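Trying the structure run again after the queue cleared.
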Amino acid sequence: MKTNQFLFFFLLVLSAISCKQRTEAEKIVDAAIGAHGGDTYEQVKIEFDFRNTHYTIFKSPNAYEYIREFSDSTGLVKDVLNNSGFVRTVNGVKIDTLTEERVGAFSRSVNSVAYFAFLPYGLNDPAAVKTLVGQTEIKGEKYDLIRVTFQAEGGGDHFEDQFLYWFGQDDHLMDYMAYLYYTDGGGVRLREVSGVQEVGGIRFQNYINYKPTDKDTPLDNMQVLFESGQLEKLSEINLENIQVEALPKN
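Done. Tokens:
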């Protein structure tokens, strides 16, 4: 066999082995990412307004930068979170007096908005551990239910949080999600898609955010409580003035 033929055959075998190594949960998430935007996520800048705050989100396979800008009694506040860390400026002047606790709180806040805006893209993060819980049905629609947890290494400050995602078996879209969190006293939430905007090849979703009466409710009980009308509407998650700019790949 010629060298080129052998190399081609080797790559085919390697590709086949790689495909077989994907778990069923990973394949479901792959399909969902494809349905929501696919490769467009990989080198893009997104801007939007959320609750009177302007966000600029840049992501690539190797780098990220999340910016939020808003005005308060101190002036124009700009927070920047990227691979190098977190910086806050007010009226263009860097604030060097932030405590480690405040830096952590601001960083988590910025990161949280970026994370949810980009779902389900972030679910293929190397630290994400995906498990297929099974198949279920909500309002007559069939879903694959995926649980996502995060490894301590690379999982960020919220690595102990747990998430459930409902992906449509037919369209692979994420119509519901629920999560268990431990910051600020902890609790559980469930989000239902309330509206969709497709901009620049990416599907952006608005949500109704629900909570149970008991903050210690097990995460796995949230679907039953939602379907029986026992969850309370807490807030609405609406992204406005969305802009998407595809960036040249390196």
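The helical segments are 3-21, 24-36, 100-117, 222-227. Worth checking whether this holds up in the mutant runs.
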